[in-house]
């Protein structure tokens, strides 16, 4: 399986890879200085990559896009909505943000991170008591209490 089908929302039935925590640490360290870039290193590709290092396959196959407008078009094509949270809901199970744990995906307000044109909220990855998020200057780490919405990975 290379991605999760929307009809079979990921339920955690697959086993995480051995040493997924080390793999996640390596993924964070490898990307710590990568700057935000639509379509290659934005919040969706970052969260998708974090999922892949934990399970060995991507959560969702995304279309190519290069700016906010084409990102919304790709989201609409794949998920039939431009709402980021509703899109993630189609693939992962939403949880109470207070129950977020290492490896889970979170949605945080975009203005907590950076003022990136076209971004009102951003997906990040829980790495313990922090959520790693993509910013213009590389990864930034915000308190897990900033998670507005969370999904179990």
Properties at a glance:
six-stranded antiparallel beta sheet; 153 residues; single chain; globular; 5 helices; 6 strands; alpha+beta
Indicate the structural class: alpha+beta
Q: Quick one: overall form?
A: globular
Distance between the termini: 16 Å
- In the sheet with the most strands, the strands line up as 1-6-2-3-4-5
Share of β-strand residues: 15-25%
Mean pLDDT: 85
- What's the Cα radius of gyration? 14 Å
Question: With helices defined by DSSP (H or I, 4 residues minimum), what is the helix count?
Answer: 5
According to DSSP, the number of beta strands is 6
Low-confidence residue ranges: 1-7
What string, H for helix and E for strand, traces the elements in order? HHHHEEHEEEE
Largest sheet: 6 strands, antiparallel
Walk me through the structure:
The longest helix is centred in the first third of the chain and has 13 residues, at 43-55. It contains five helices and six strands, in the order H-H-H-H-E-E-H-E-E-E-E. A hairpin with a 2-residue loop joins strand 4 and strand 5 (138-143). The protein has a six-stranded antiparallel β-sheet. Helices cover 31% and strands 20% of the residues. By secondary structure, the protein is of the alpha+beta class. It has helices at 20-31, 43-55, 68-79, 84-89, 110-113; strands at residues 93-95, 105-109, 121-126, 130-135, 138-143, 149-152. Helix 1 runs antiparallel to helix 2 (43-55).
């Amino acid at each position: 399986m290379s991605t999760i089908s929307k009809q079979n929302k990921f339920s955690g039935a697959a086993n995480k890879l051995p040493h997924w925590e080390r793999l996640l640490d390596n993924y964070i360290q490898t990307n710590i200085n990568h700057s935000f870039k639509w379509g290659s290193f934005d919040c969706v590709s970052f969260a998708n990559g974090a999922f892949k290092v934990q399970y060995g396959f991507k959560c969702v196959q995304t279309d190519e896009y290069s700016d906010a407008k084409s990102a919304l078009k790709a989201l609409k094509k794949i998920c039939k909505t431009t709402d980021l949270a509703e899109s993630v809901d189609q693939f992962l199970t939403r949880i109470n943000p207070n129950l977020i744990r290492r490896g889970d995906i979170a949605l945080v307000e975009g203005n907590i991170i950076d003022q990136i044109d076209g971004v009102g909220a951003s997906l990040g990855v829980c790495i313990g008591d922090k959520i790693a998020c993509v910013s213009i200057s590389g990864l930034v780490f915000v308190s897990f209490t900033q998670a507005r919405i969370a999904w179990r990975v």
